[in-house]
């Protein structure tokens, strides 16, 4: 076992886990801010209930995203110190900006929003919701700009063996991030939309089966469902369009990644898109692989026409060797890889299946959304037994699509951690094997890998337990019942404080932990 | 002043903000079972920091990010060398962060008791851990010529850095007690005041010890002034607290943090992380700094960002300025 392998597993586990929370946080934050805006503008209590219910689920999830994010920032230095030294001049800046511009806003205004229900005016309180939700988007932009720079380094010169930043605007305006950001944000909204649809469809279905008419919160679930389905329609369309755009860019910037996405061994002209393969995809020579293929589609995905050539793995390897060298440099810190030949082919089963699972789960999620839209048209609620279960199960699909997308794109750039830019500055690339901390022992990284994995596993159980509990309880779980004599207050829109509804007269806090 | 020196000061300032702000929320967490005798009292305590602890923590994240951006070599060497303490620190921070949010979400004694344990342990470990890391960067490490740690994973644990760990934890304890005196009312506030006065002479000793150690080993002449400021401010804080002026006491503890940070970073300069093996391997402000373009960009971001942060975080403290007592705590309402 080597530090490199353990550190990669740790980065993979912690990052995939972190990115289970993040898209839900980003998508749901903005949708909750929208719900609260609807309430402030219309005073319709339905929107207050929506804000409270979805807001509570948001907070349960938000906390996990925040704490697992700290690990992300620390582990660059802890486990990847050689990487940090190499790229620090460029990569540190977007990270620091994320902290200074996004995290401060996010954490501060989230606190104001949680505790500020009776301390702030309605409008100021609403502004806090918008502040933290927009900050989550800003945060996504900065970290994607940093990631995109690793995928496609720009805005630099190469001096003394290290890239030096020459234009922050080139880094923030990298065409890679301009493609990755819409794709990621659309993916986040797809997650939030499916979450809304799944849970509200389940609620409607459950109440409907028990008693058709007397659910006071029926309107809440119905509005949530409609909101979710329409956001979903837009989000899934945006995911597909931005994904296509990003794919075409990747064919240019990282041809090996895209050849690996297809497990395309030999160049083809025109190239077909493999829908499903059986046999041993792992072999770069494609012996033993049979594949169900749509003719010429890959040429379209790569170059927008049905005739051009797409390069295969076996033709790309010699090109990469010619450009970036056939062997690792001789350096004791590379351990047993020192001076050895470089394997330029990513792990093909991971990239091939990762790419298909990303698209597949995304398509299932979108399909379920369309189905839900149809089944609930004009206020209908299906009675069939499977509907409730299917609604809840579908929530998992966009999460899986997001995870597989990231696994694909990060595994697909191996063996590089900083991928060379084909039209960029010469010399700026780094192999993952060179990036790991030189002074750190296997024992240390293994300790943190085990500790964090166990901790994350335990916390996942707790989070799912809490979300389930709050989902089942519905609106009653987040809003105390109005006291029976309580018509002394002024009308239905006065839910404003409502955390402490039972005792408005004294100074009881509207919300407290 | 050159850009690298300016950024060295900015990072000191971020540490200052972090120690002052998260210091008291660590303290509140550490004192949870001591000052909170029942669930309502513990809820009072948690709610004094509820709206702000997360914003306080971001000061550390930004200090880390700014170190990465401005001094990549410093960030890389320190974080990889202190691998195990930082892992423990991260586990503690994760635990206590989740605990604040989740402790009130299920209405059973057992649930709350477990999360309370996480808060207490997390606050202790995190404050000890960050003290260890801070004193490590000031007192140095066995570094080779690449800036990598030589020797065992526990090289960062020495009696000097353990003193640093106790210094931050002890300070957090007193700072938290004074904060609770200031932010709560009635019985809890009195209890917090008595506790602060009783423990301070012992709890602040490690801090004084650390400052003297650093000053004698690496200090410049002028940093004696900041050491003196810490001593005077700490004594002043206790005297004001005894007189019932907890606001002034809290502010004076802030002055003590200023003196502490000035002493530590003043003694550290021109290094950012000394090598205990060979002074030639020491990482310096000049040698680890990013290019002047990067630092210029960061300066512009900080010039607009930092005042904004101070304004809106200040506003948060203003919004939640009222003292909290048991009478303010609403009934528990969670799903059954």
Specify the oligomeric state. Answer: heterodimer
| Number of strand elements of chain A | 6
Structural class of chain B: mainly alpha
Number of strands of chain B: 2
Domain count of chain A, please report it.
2
In N-to-C order, the SSE pattern of chain B is: HHHHHHHHHHHHEEHH
- Can you tell me the overall shape of chain A? globular
Q: How many separate structural domains of chain B?
A: 1
Q: Please bin the fraction of helical residues of chain A.
A: 55-70%
Largest β sheet strand count, sense and barrel closure of chain B: 2 strands, antiparallel
Strand content of chain A: 5-15%
Main structural class of chain A: mainly alpha
The fold-level CATH name of chain B is: Formate dehydrogenase/DMSO reductase fold
Mean pLDDT of chain B: 94
Radius of gyration of chain A: 25 Å
Number of helices of chain A: 15
| Mean pLDDT value of chain A | 88
Q: Which residues of chain A sit in consecutive blocks of at least 5 with pLDDT less than 50?
A: 485-505
Radius of gyration of chain B (CA) equals: 20 Å
Strand order, biggest sheet of chain A? 1-2
